Amino acid sequence: MSISTFSYVPVVLLLLPAATPAASELTLVVDLQPVHELLQFVDQRLASIYPIIQNFKSTITSDPLGITASWRTSDICSYRGFYCDNPPDNKSAITVGSIDFNGFRLGAPTLEGFLDMLPDLALFHANSNEFEGTVPSGVAKLPYLYELDLSNNRLTGPFPTVVLGMPGLTFLDLRFNQFTGSVPGQIFVQNLNALFLNDNAFDRLPLDNLGISHILYLTLADNRFTGPITPGILKSLATLNEVLFLNNNLTGCLPYELGLLREATVIDIGDNQLTGTLPLSLSCLTKVEQLNLAGNQLHGGVPEAICRLGLGNLANLSLSGNYFNNVGPWCRTMIERGVLDVRNNCIQKLPSQRPVEECARFFGHMGTCPRMWSYSYIPCKNPHSAPTTAPSP
Ligand SMILES: *[C@@H]1O[C@H](CO)[C@@H](O)[C@H](O)[C@H]1NC(C)=O
Ligand SMILES: *[C@@H]1O[C@H](CO)[C@@H](O)[C@H](O)[C@H]1NC(C)=O
Ligand SMILES: *[C@@H]1O[C@H](CO)[C@@H](O)[C@H](O)[C@H]1NC(C)=O
C-alpha cells in the first residue's frame, strides 16, 4: 500500500467505494488492489508514525510467527507489539508509548529509522529477536524513553555510547549480543537501576571511581573482561543489590572495598583469575545471601568472621576450586550445614581436595597483594557479631 500521499495529508479520510463493503471485502480490496488510499487515524501522532512503521516492516527479513501481518491498518494501537497511551505532554493525544517485541524472533538489519523515530516511546522491549546493527544514535533524542531491552539479539560493535546521553534511562539490557571493547565508566553513574551486559564480548572495565552509582542490578558475567576489579569501581557501586562478574578473566587481588557493597544480596565473581587472600572486610556483607568466589586462585585461610555470616543471611558461600588451606570451627560448621563449599582446595584432612603436589606447586609461585594492611581492615562498625563461644562441632 502506498504511503506517498500520506505526509501531506494531516487529517485523513479513508477513501472507500461508494457502497461501503463489509470488513472482509474491504480487506480484499486493499490487499489485491493497492490504491493511493487515505487512511483515517485517531490521532495525528499515530498518523505521523504510520509511515515509519510501514517502512520498518518492509525491512523485516524474518518473521516466523507472522507478527507483522497485523501491522496493516490505520489502527496502530491494535498492531501486535505496539501499545498506545496518552503522552505526558498532551493528555488528550494518543500515541505509541510502548513496544514489546519480546520473543517475536523478528529479523532486521537495523533498528535505525524505527526505534529512534518513535518520539513518544517510553519502553522498548525486544528480547529474543534477530535485530542487527547497533543502538541507533537518535535514541538519545527520545525524551520519554526509560527502559531499553535489546537482549538476545545480534547487535554488534562497541558499547553504544549514545545511551550515555540519556539521563532518563533507568533500565538498560544488552545481554546476549556481540558487543565488544570497553564499558565506559559514565554508564555506572547515570540514573540506571539495572544494567545487564552479560554474555557479550566486552573486555575492559572502567578503572576509576566515578561517583556514586544508582545501579541495583549489574551483570557483567560471561564476557572477556580482563584486569583487576578496582577499588574505584567498587566504591561507585555501593548501592548494588546484585553484582555478577562470573566467568571473565579478571585478575589481581580482591580489594577490601568489596566489603563496602553493604546492600548486596548476590555477589558472583566465580570463574575468574583472582588471587590473594580473602579480605576481612567481607564480614561486613551482612545482607549477602549468595557469595561465589569459586574457580579462582584465592588462597590462605578462610576467615571465621566470613563464615559467621552463615548465621545470618548467607546461604551459599562457594569457594571451591581455589587454593585455600585452612578453615576454623565456624567454617567447618558451615560446611556441615551445606552453606560453605570448599571442595577442590588445599585443606588437609577435608575430603575432595587438590593433590598435595598441585598445592605445593601453587604455593611455590604465589604472589603478594598490594595494600597488605587492608586485608585485616574491617570497614564497618558491626560485622556479623561474633558469638562469644565457638560452635560445638
Ligand atoms: C493535544 O492532542 C489533541 C489530540 O491529538 C489535539 O487535538 C490537540 O491540539 C493537542 N493539544 C496541544 C496543546 O497540542
Ligand atoms: C581467558 O583467557 C584465556 C587465555 O587468554 C582464554 O583462553 C579464555 O578464553 C579467556 N576466557 C574468557 C572467559 O574470556
Ligand atoms: C551455590 O552457589 C554455586 C555457585 O554459584 C552454585 O553452583 C551452587 O549450585 C549453589 N548451591 C546451592 C545449594 O544453591
From TrEMBL:
Name of the featured protein? Uncharacterized protein
Highest taxon of the lineage: Eukaryota
Q: Which organism is it from?
A: Melastoma candidum
